[in-house]
Amino acid sequence: MDTGYIWDERKYLMVQEKHGVTFAEVVDVMESEVSMYFEDPQGNPGRDMCVGPTKEGRMLQVIISDEDLPLYRIVTAFPASKEWQDEFKH
Predict the structure, then answer these.
(1) Which InterPro entries does UniProt cross-reference here (predicted)?
(2) pTM for this one?
(3) Residue 78 belongs to a domain with what CATH number?
(4) Which domain, by its residues, includes 80?
């Protein structure tokens, strides 16, 4: 079964404007062999967080939902906090 990604266009445009994150960058992070996955830190059921680098080395936090499997729904994405960047380096 192939995996893919979907992102509500309105939410995507908001994230792109606010954080400058592109769909391609999110896919980079999601498909990186070094990205790390965690339960959603806000405790939302069915959601996870992925932290990792884009191909250009930008560190992002990506919140995803698996409710539409085999497609992962991108909830939001933004530059990784210093805390998560430090965690990633260890």
Answers:
(1) BrnT_sf, BrnT_toxin
(2) 0.89
(3) 3.10.450.530
(4) 4-88
